[in-house]
Amino acid sequence: MSRTKQKAPKGGGKDPQDIIRREKSELVAGDLTQKKVATTMGGKKRKLDQSDDPKTYPLPKRAALDTESEQSTSPDVAVDPSLLADHFAKNIQKWFSTSSPIELEDMYLPKKAFLDTTSYTKERLAANLPDFLEQFSAGGKEGLSNCEEVGSPHTIVLAMSGMRIADLMRELRVFKSQGSKVGKFMPKHMKLEMNIKFLQSNRVGIAIGTPERLNQLLEAGALKTQGLQRIVVDGSHHDEKRSTIFTIGQIFRPMVAFLNDDNIRQRYGAEQNKVDIIVF
C-alpha cells in the first residue's frame, strides 16, 4: 500500500477512524492538563516537562554547530605515540588501499615521530591551542613568538579547512611579534602566488594551512623546513558533518605526503634538529 496520505472521501463525509483518533487525542490532552494543574497546586512537583527548565532550552542552530565542532575526540588523539602511529597506519591503509605492502610501509609514520602529549589534561579546543603549544615547546611563549629566518617557520599547523584555519589563526595571534608573524595558507581563499610572496618576504614563526597548500609551497621552494621543530596535526576537531582530518581522503592523503617529505621524515626522533609530530 502506498505511504502517501489518502484523500478525504468526497461528499463531505468523515472517516470514523479519524474521529476516534481525534477523540483519543483530546482525552490525552485533557488528562495531561489536569496533571499539570494538580502537580503545580500541590507544590511538590512543578515541572511536567523539561521545557520549564531554562537549562534545556535548545541552542540557536549556529551556536549548536559551534559547540559540536569544538568537542574533543579524545580517543583518537589523546593517546600515546604507539597508538597514534597505529591510528595513522590504519588510516593510511584505508586511504591508500591500492598501494602495495611495500609502498604502505614507506608511508607509515614511526612511533618516534610523535610527541607524547597524554599529560595535557585540558580540552583540545581552539582556545586552548596556545596553552597546549607552550606546554610542549621548549622555549615556551617566547620561543613561539620568535623566528630566525624568512620563510622558515618553527611550527606548522595542519588543519582541514579554511574556516578552521581562521579559528586557529585568531587564537595563535598571541604569538605574533615584531620579528615573527603567524601566517595562514589555504587554497580557494588565497592565491598560491600570494602565499609564496608572503613567505619570501616575511619571517613566519607559525604557519597554519591545509596539507594541499603547504605541499604546494614546499614544491615551490617558498616554504623552508630547516628551522622546523614541530608539526601540529589538528586531529581533535570535527566539523558539523562530524568529519575530521583523518576521515576525508582528499585531506588525509596530502597530509601523509607532507609528513613524509624527505627533508622532514629523516629528522623524526633525531638527536639534533629534531622534528616532532604533535597531534592536538
The ordered string of helix (H) and strand (E) elements is HHHHHHHEHEHEHEHHE
Profile the largest sheet. 5 strands, parallel
- Determine the fraction of residues in helical runs and give it as a percent range: 40-55%
Total number of β-strand segments? 5
Q: Would you give the CATH topology of the largest domain?
A: Rossmann fold
**Strand order in the largest sheet:** 2-3-1-4-5
Task: Give the C-level CATH assignment of the largest domain.
Answer: Alpha Beta
Strand % is 5-15%
How would you describe the shape? globular
Radius of gyration: 27 Å
Mean pLDDT metric: 81
The quaternary organization reads as single chain
Low-confidence stretches: 1-14, 26-75
